[in-house]
Amino acid sequence: MNSIERFFAAQTYAVAGASNRRHKYGNKVFRALLAAGRETYPLNPAQDKIEDHRAYPSIVDLPLVPEALSIITPPEVTRKVVADGIAAGVQHIRMQPGAEDEQASQSAREAGINVIDDGSCILVLLARQP
Length: 130
Description:
The protein has about 130 residues and is α/β, with parallel strands linked by helices. It is about 35% helix and about 20% strand. The chain has helices at about 5-10, 25-35, 75-90, 100-110, 120-125, and strands spanning about 10-15, 40-45, 50, 55, 70, 90-95, 115. Strands 2-1-5-6-7 form a five-stranded parallel beta sheet, sandwiched between helices. A two-stranded antiparallel sheet has the order 3-4. α3 (about 75-90) links the parallel β5 (about 70) and β6. It is globular. This is CoA-binding domain-containing protein.
């Protein structure tokens, strides 16, 4: 199983950078994972609810540790999100194009996490899933 297949084999997801603005990728990714039947939690410290789902300030505030974390944040925020994901025990991290941070990717890989930071778009990848 390749890194993308392992990411999509996860049962639980968190989306860092989820948004109420439907034109933003954070919202599109959150909705796409939900539509694909994935148990998904939105992460956004500035929102209480996103698409009628309780939003959480960070991964440490979730009721569980998600297996997979999709990141749609600026690189300087990505570093903190990844550090929190490592500390929480996340198994898979995918960074949306523009969210990538080399230092964060390296730290996650060193922690044994499956990292997808190759510029691929989750919306395209998810559409290809069986």
